[in-house]
Design goal:
Helix content is 44%, strand content 9%. The chain is mainly alpha-helical. It has one domain. The strands form 2 sheets. A two-stranded antiparallel ribbon has the order 1-2. It has a two-stranded parallel ribbon with strand order 3-4. A hairpin with a 5-residue loop joins strand 1 and strand 2.
Length: 219
């Protein structure tokens, strides 16, 4: 998508590399965490797959192109939580978010019954540990946007892509899907970049585990 590439090049022209991107300690934690996460995924994959198949026809996994570090495209993986063809009818569902940069609908009719459970428990995100293992994502970072979201970015929004996208991050640890204002998400992502350290990453992982166990802000 040349339009997105042009916007990205202009926004990134003079930005330094964020220290988290070149941190060997962070990468080591990502690899270890991904190995543990994929081990859990293997154990849970069969019952999740059976539940998905019994609930609705279609594939077990769902993949989508997202924008990662510096806007680079990569394919993200999840357990499928929506009916087949959900992307094609997205325009029929009301966006409850306050801007076009994100899409939110608490009662999205495209989500299957088992899909709602997988989302509440964040089990749908287990396959993303593969993205972490191969280096496309990190355990902690920013939410990876779609190209259609990025095309609406203003210049300051690009700064949130200065770090690798994460399975969790500031907004997941402090509200998850209850946050519907994109500028709030951007503020949190940039705040994460300012606060970043290995200890801070670990604290966000622990907060996320607490939020997920309480099902806070899930939809």
């Amino acid at each position: 998508m040349p339009v997105i590439d042009d916007l990205h090049n202009a926004a990134q022209a003079e930005l330094p590399v964020h220290p988290s991107v070149i941190s060997k300690a962070k990468r080591m934690i990502d690899i270890l965490g991904a190995i543990v996460g994929l081990s859990i995924t293997v154990v849970l994959a069969i019952p999740i797959a059976i539940a998905i198949k019994l609930d609705s026809p279609g594939s077990i996994f769902y993949s989508q192109i997202r924008c990662g570090l510096n806007g680079r495209y990569f394919r993200i993986w999840k357990f499928r939580t929506m009916s087949v063809g959900a992307d094609q009818i997205k325009h029929l569902v009301k966006n409850e978010a306050q801007s076009d940069q994100i899409f939110k609908n608490e009662n999205d009719p495209r989500i299957t019954c088992i899909g709602r459970f997988l989302r509440r428990t964040s089990l749908d995100e287990l396959p993303q540990f593969w993205n972490v293992l191969v280096g496309e994502m990190s355990l902690v970072g920013t939410r990876p946007p779609t190209p259609n979201e990025v095309i609406h970015y203003s210049k300051h929004h690009w700064k949130r892509l200065n770090v690798k996208p994460g399975i969790t991050g500031e907004w997941q640890a402090h509200g998850r899907s209850s946050i519907k204002d994109f500028e709030d998400i951007v503020h949190m992502d940039l705040d994460y970049q300012r606060k970043w350290s290995i200890i801070y990453d670990i604290s966000l992982i622990l907060k996320t585990l607490k939020v997920v166990s309480n099902k806070t802000g899930a939809c």
